Amino acid sequence: MALLDLSGLVAGYGGITAIKGISLEVDPGEVVTLIGSNGAGKSTTLRAISGLIRPRAGRITFAGKAISGMKPHDIVSLGISQVPEGRGIFSRLTVAENLALGAFQRHDGEVHADLDRTFRLFPRLKERENQLGGTLSGGEQQMLAIGRALMARPKLLLLDEPSMGLSPVLVETIFATIAEIRREGATILLVEQNAAMALEIADRAYVIESGVITLQGTGAALAQDDSVRRAYLGEV
Amino acid sequence: MTPLFLAHGSAEFWSDQTVNGLTTGSIYALVALGYTMVYGILQLINFAHGEVFMVGAFAGYGVLVALGGEDISGVMVLVAIILALAAAGAASAVTAATIERVAYRPLRNAPRLAPLISAIGVSIFLSHLVDDGFLDGKSKFYPQIFPTGDLSAGPLSISYLQLFLIGSSLVMMAGLYWVVQRTRTGKAIRAVSESRENAALMGIDVDRMIVATFVLGAIMAGFGGVLYGLFLSSIRGSMGFLPGVKAFTAAVLGGIGSIPGAVVGGFFLGLTESVGRELLNEIPGVNLPNEWKDVVAFALLVVVLIFRPTGIFRQRETKRA
Ligand SMILES: Nc1ncnc2c1ncn2[C@@H]1O[C@H](COP(=O)(O)OP(=O)(O)O)[C@@H](O)[C@H]1O
Ligand SMILES: [Mg+2]
């Protein structure tokens, strides 16, 4: 059974219908990517999954439970964490406080151990522990955002364009981190405009255009697809 | 050498003005915290906050009367005041949480003017409910139980009551600062103040944190209400209006949204009304008696808004990388 199952999802803002009947699945342990150009409806899809916007139609099930219409904080407690577009760092909170908020709903005794693990994954964050989030560089903020989401021990991690605005070197670093998180068994839904990197890392991929899924397949297959190569991989 | 501005007053005079300014300033500061915290999280000016302060004053009054009123003496004075403060904090908290639920939450996504009008409506309703509904237009008087007497050293002199007001308000504000900076709820409140959506993605129940913000500010206002009653004795339903507007002024002076700013703004305003006014009186031809303190306070607000609209103590901005 799929961990996450969207079927016929419709959502938008005011008079705009941003996604028009999206269906997709993410199985446990998979890395699935959703690629598409700017304005295609990728963030809207993630925002609907996290409960930040209420779907107008369709169904979202997570681990067999219907979650559409639930409050965002209840969805987090079921095990879905999102790293939003633009990273969503609390700029007036310290790095340590940002990480602590990632574990906001946890009361188990292992939060501290997970903090150590996060600092092993991102040693830079350890150095900047007591600095305000707003003073970090873009790459450090992205590491903080991912580290913070992991502090919730999510069953499903939603990543919205983690490579956005980063230098090529930092993009490599971030993707290497995603690969590492994946090796530890995480399930990830990755939204990207950087299709090349996303397809390389993903088990399966969906292409979204103007709010509709137009293609799907394994990451490798889509990387070979002519229309994908033309539209998203910069080939003519 | 005697500084020029001491020309018309003794050292005792200026010392008294300073103590008076710090005393009223401590009440302004306590009340200002609620304005600044609610503004920080909702960008809403809670015009009913003065009435939250008033409810606290009455709750404290009720406890003091129930415990014997003027007959309270000895160590019971301390016990009674602590119980009065606790009751005031609780009553103000319940009042503020109810106001949030009934008057603001339904308007969360309405145009910004709507909750403002709702706030003014709640404010008028509560003050008239108490004055006309319960008190028939009369005032109540706090039992005068606090030990009288002064502590003096040279030209400096402060009454026990003033010392208690200033000292206890500083302790309460330190407590609030600790809650906001160190506790899980405090971190969550600060996160919600920065971004409701991103806070929700952390698993924070945004509505609960908004209520918690109202409650924390209300507890401070409730404490302030009891201190006000102990100091000025007379309380009534409309008592919250002027201190409320003054405390709001203090919050703006300090940079609305900033917690340290509200505290500094409160004391600054208190000192402006006393010391600042007397300093103006040093100018030949100027004579502003104590009744003019409100004029001085609001003139200061206007001047600050014109020249430094973000407040004297601009809220720290951190740039985003
Ligand atoms: N807050 C909003 N209000 C109105 N329209 C929005 C809002 N956010 C996104 N949109 C519109 O919804 C569509 C999909 O946006 P989005 O999901 O952000 O795309 P993507 O993440 O793929 O770039 C776009 O047409 C965009 O302009
Ligand atoms: Mg997007």
Task: Please tell me about this protein's structure.
The complex is a heterodimer of chains A (236) and B (321). Chain A has 236 residues and is an alpha/beta fold. In chain A, strand 4 and strand 5 form a beta hairpin. In chain A, the strands form 2 sheets. Chain A has a 6-stranded mixed sheet with strand order 6-7-8-3-9-10, sandwiched between helices. In chain A, helix 3 (95-102) runs parallel beside helix 6. The model of chain A has no long low-confidence stretch (mean pLDDT 94). Chain A has 10 helices and 10 strands. Chain A is 37% helix and 26% strand. In chain B, strand 2 and strand 3 form a beta hairpin. Chain B has a single domain (4-138, 158-307), classed as ABC transporter involved in vitamin B12 uptake, BtuC. The termini of chain B are far apart. Chain B is 69% helix and 4% strand. At the A-B interface, helix 2, helix 3 and helix 6 of A face helix 6 and helix 7 of B.
The CATH topology of chain B is what?
ABC transporter involved in vitamin B12 uptake, BtuC
Rg on CA atoms of chain A, Å: 17 Å
CATH architecture assignment of chain B: Orthogonal Bundle
The helix-strand sequence of chain A is EEEHEEHEHHHHEHEHEEHH
Question: What is the level 1 CATH name of the domain at 1-78 and 186-236 in chain A?
Answer: Alpha Beta
What is the number of E strands of chain B?
Answer: 4
> N-to-C terminal Cα separation of chain A, in Å?
39 Å
CATH overall fold name of the domain at 1-78 and 186-236 in chain A: Rossmann fold
Q: How many separate domains make up the residues of chain B?
A: 1
Number of helices of chain B: 11
- Largest contact between chains: A-B, 33 and 22 residues
CATH superfamily membership of the domain at 1-78 and 186-236 in chain A, which one?
A: P-loop containing nucleotide triphosphate hydrolases
What class would the helix/strand composition of chain B place it in? mainly alpha
Low-confidence stretches of chain A: none
Low-confidence stretches of chain B: 317-321
Q: Please state the overall shape of chain A, judged from the principal axes of the Cα atoms.
A: globular
Gross CATH architecture of the domain at 1-78 and 186-236 in chain A: 3-Layer(aba) Sandwich
> In this structure, how is the largest beta sheet of chain A organized?
6 strands, mixed
Mean pLDDT of chain A: 94
**Strand percentage of chain A, roughly?**
25-35%
